[in-house]
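Below is how a single chain appears once it has passed through the pipeline. First comes the sequence as given, then the structure the pipeline wrote out for it. We keep one example in the README because the format questions we get most often are answered faster by looking than by reading.
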Amino acid sequence: MTDTEKLGAHEVAAWLRRHPNFLQQFPDLASSLVVPRETGPAASLASYQLEVLREKNRELTRRLHELFANAQENERLSVRIHQLTLALMKQGSAMDTLRAMAASLEEDFAGDRVRIVLLRALPGVESAPWLDVIPAGDDRLAPFADFLAADEPLCGRLQPSKQGVLYGEEAGELQSTALFAVPGLAMVAVGSRDSNRFYPGMGTLFLRMMGEAFGAALSRYVD
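Resulting structure:
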């Protein structure tokens, strides 16, 4: 028995990996090889390789579609942030600025509830279903101490203590929230009944941009 006949399958596979052009020298061998499929009959090596290439092409096409869809969504959000910034800066009062912000959140985030909590009183601000005023230092803000100190948007399911402050009697209905703060001025929340609408780890860049635009517009009315 020759040394070649003593080789095991692993040794043959390793040798072929080191010599990928081997079958070019022996085309008759390439045409006679069969490759088992997970389902169905065995296929020729050429057919198998073609199917592998087709599968890779399908996967690349799927990823390209995802990237294109994400790019379109990001472009749409960028346009809306620009439009929101212009709208906020055009308002002539604190109350009009708050209304413009609330309207944009309802339209762009497709949430079920919008809440703006002012951390200080502002001139001319009137009562509204989506608005509350809780001065800094109020005990009700204690659950948000870490959030306000970190100054980073949050997405996901909030603790019941936070839910209660933001949504009151409706707290139990809302399963996820996007929350951002304007340092020293406000907290802004969008709540959804869908637990997957806002989730930890989702991008928060646009939330930060909205917060900065809102803060710049609202600070004009701070005494």
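Residues 50 and 218 are 61 Å apart (CA to CA).

See the next section for the split statistics.
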